[in-house]
Specification:
single chain, 197 residues, mainly alpha, two-stranded antiparallel ribbon, elongated
Length: 197
């Protein structure tokens, strides 16, 4: 969970070099990141991954590092529930990226004899995929906050949060803490809790 960034290098020797190499690049924890396709032929780094867009002590709303850290740090608070919601978005994005790369490969291959056109296609594609990832992760960030605020879990139906007949939010689920957690609290602070009551 201390990962800053990671990547999977895809080397496809049967394709022209600028198209054949892809770094599937992700930031923050490997288990909860999204691996976004960055062609090795790009000459422009998408803003969300760009050096100087925030750093370890400078928050930036447009930096993928900070967005993914914000989401993952919130997920830690109710991991067994929230990771399920996170992975739905993660899987959908990555599966879509794989399909998009296959389509873009075909488009890019038509320009291999025109370096400028090829690089333009690769830059635009990798930039567009990074923007899509940022949009969906921002949406996930807001969704998780609304669904899990204060440790409760809002009820959903047909892809929307449930409301009462008067339009108010339906009363949320309030799941109990796991027995292991309760035992740990009693073990660490049992005497203090006894004295309070």
């Amino acid at each position: 969970q201390q990962t800053g960034f990671s990547f999977v290098a895809q080397c496809r020797s049967w394709l022209p070099a600028k198209i054949g190499g892809i770094l599937w690049f992700g930031v923050d924890d490997t288990y909860s990141t999204v691996y976004c396709p960055m062609y090795c032929g790009i000459t422009e780094i998408p803003e969300c991954f760009r050096q100087g867009n925030g750093d370890m002590v400078t928050y930036s709303e447009t930096a993928a590092f900070w967005l993914f850290n914000r989401v993952t740090n919130f997920v830690y608070s109710r991991y067994c529930d929230m990771i399920v919601d996170l992975q739905k978005v993660q899987n959908r994005l990555e599966e879509n990226f794989i399909k998009e790369v296959a389509r873009n490969d075909e488009r890019a291959k038509t320009t291999v004899n025109n370096e400028e056109a090829l690089v333009k296609i690769l830059n635009e594609f990798s930039g567009r995929m990074a923007e899509r990832m940022m949009k969906e992760w921002n949406d996930l960030d807001r969704y998780l906050l609304v669904k899990y605020i204060d440790g409760n879990i809002k009820k959903e139906k047909n892809g929307h949060f449930e409301r009462t007949a008067t339009g108010q939010a339906a009363f949320p689920e309030q799941p109990a803490y796991r027995p292991e957690w309760i035992r740990m609290i009693v073990k660490d602070h049992g005497e203090t809790i006894k004295q309070t009551f």
